[in-house]
Write a structure and sequence with these properties.
7-stranded antiparallel sheet, 4-stranded antiparallel sheet, Methylamine Dehydrogenase, Chain H, single chain, 27 strands
């Protein structure tokens, strides 16, 4: 037993069970004493000290979980830990082929697999065209098409701020976008802009790959139902049942047979006719999720007071067991991992860790981890409190 553990155990043994009116004062006294007596940790922590502190903090959380001060104590302990994966390195390359499309406060960026970066411009929402030839972006109340070198090909003004864009897969002949509450579709060369739906219930839109007819688009209507539209004829092919909460993401499998719907707190799968692919949500208590390219698994981010935050691989259909790819442990508290993103080949998973300023890459097959540090600085963000960069796509 290490010295840290002995001191914490001694402090806990000496602490009497608090009375109702004394719980907060006694709780803070014990926690502060244990923390003050610890040995200072080196700047680059090794796995053993971090593990010792995690054990000690887990014991303290358990000791105070039932007291009125429990919530404050757990919050204080989480703040005492330096968040993030160990051995994080500077970005030199991506662990899988392809390029990242990144949205940051400083603009829209492309990160190549060799680690090189290019700023496209002061844009907001962004979407790859097929094979990464071009990028559709939002520029205030305009939707634009730019090359990976930042050269603008065309711009279409609208009457409202552009809140989402999506370039159709396959032929790349259509770009869908949400302007205000309107769903609109324009040709890939910037012509033929037109209204597709006057009032949508979410900015989540997703083109269906490998559709029987081209240019089928999933969106959320004003009644909070997922709908599939043939955007050439404007015919609505089907609508799902009404959802109880708002939808944040729609994502198709590469074969166009399964549609992931991520709503507030859960994820579900629809088949190609809008019916539930499985009975009920495929993943609950979920803050974010992504569908693997083959459609067989979901990567979900979820938090639990007992286990902390974890990234799990959940089977899309019954028959396989879920696997935990990464977990922070209860002592770290709620670390608020961001939306996961599969690599184009489905072998790696990118999970943003805003509080740590890191990108965590996880290899699906064996859970190997590669952590990239100082992500905000990669995109010219140095001011504390700046929104953490988000990954809009991992292409080609």
């Amino acid at each position: 037993m290490t010295r840290d553990e002995e001191r914490v155990r001694e402090a806990l043994r000496e602490a009497a069970v608090p009375q109702e009116g004394q719980a907060e004062e006694r709780g803070w006294r014990v926690v502060r004493a244990a923390y003050a007596e610890r040995d200072p940790a080196p700047r680059r922590r090794r796995s053993a000290p971090r593990g010792v502190l995690a054990v000690a903090a887990a014991g303290l959380v358990a000791a105070f979980a039932l007291t009125p001060a429990g919530a404050d104590v757990r919050e204080w302990i989480a703040d005492a830990f330096e968040p993030g994966a160990e051995n994080a390195r500077q970005l030199t390359s991506l662990p899988a082929p392809g390029s990242l499309l990144v949205e940051a406060q400083s603009g829209t960026w492309i990160v190549r697999d060799d680690g090189s970066r290019r700023r496209l411009g002061s844009y907001g929402e962004a979407s790859w065209s097929p094979r990464g030839i071009n990028v559709a972006v939002a520029a205030g109340d305009e939707v634009r098409a730019v090359s990976p070198l930042g050269v603008e090909h065309w711009a279409q003004p609208t009457s409202h701020r552009v809140r989402a864009v999506a370039w159709s897969p396959g032929d790349g002949y259509r770009v869908a976008y949400v302007s205000g509450s309107e769903l609109r579709v324009i040709a890939g060369d910037g012509t033929g802009d037109g209204l597709a739906a006057p009032d949508v219930g979410s900015t989540a839109i997703a083109w269906r790959p490998a559709a029987p007819t081209p240019h089928q688009l999933a969106y959320v209507d004003a009644d909070r139902r997922v709908a599939l539209m043939d955007t050439d004829s404007r015919e609505v092919l089907w609508r799902s049942g009404k959802l109880a909460t708002s939808v944040s993401l729609l994502e198709w499998s590469d074969d166009g047979e399964r549609l992931l719907v991520v709503a507030d707190g859960f994820a579900l799968l629809l088949d190609d006719e809008g019916a539930a692919a499985v009975k009920g949500p495929v993943a609950g208590t979920t803050s974010a999720a992504a569908l693997s390219p083959d459609g067989d698994h979901l990567a979900v981010v979820r938090s639990d007071r007992r286990t902390g935050t974890e990234v799990a691989l959940v089977p899309a259909l019954p028959g396989d067991r879920e696997r935990v790819l990464y977990e922070t442990g209860a002592a770290a508290g709620d670390v608020s991992l961001g939306p996961p993103q599969f690599s184009p080949d489905g072998k790696w998973l990118l999970v943003p860790w805003p509080r740590a300023g890191q990108w965590l890459f996880i290899r699906v097959a064996d859970r190997r981890q590669v952590a990239v540090a100082d992500v905000a600085r990669l995109f010219g963000l140095s001011r504390p409190g700046s929104p953490f960069p988000s990954v809009a796509g991992w292409c080609c």
